[in-house]
Amino acid sequence: MKPDRNQALETLAVHAGRGPDPATGSVAPALYPATTFERDADTGTSRGYAYQRDGHPNGAALEAAVARLEGGDWGVSFASGSAATLALFHAASRRGEIVATADAYRGTLRQFAELVPEWGTRVTLVDTTELRAVEEAVSGDTALLFAESPSNPLLEISDLRALADIARARGAVFACDNTFATPVLQNPLALGAHMVVHSATKYLGGHSDLLGGVVAGAGLDEWHADVRGYAIGAGATLAPFNAWLLLRSLPTLPVRVRTQSAAAAELARRLSGHPAVAEVHYPGLPDQPGHRLATRQMQGYGAMIAFRHADGGAAAKALPARTRLFTHATSLGGVESLIEHRASSEGPDSTAPAELIRISVGLEHVEDLWDDLARALEA
Ligand code: PLP
Question: How many H helices and E strands in the chain?
Answer without folding.
Answer: 14, 12
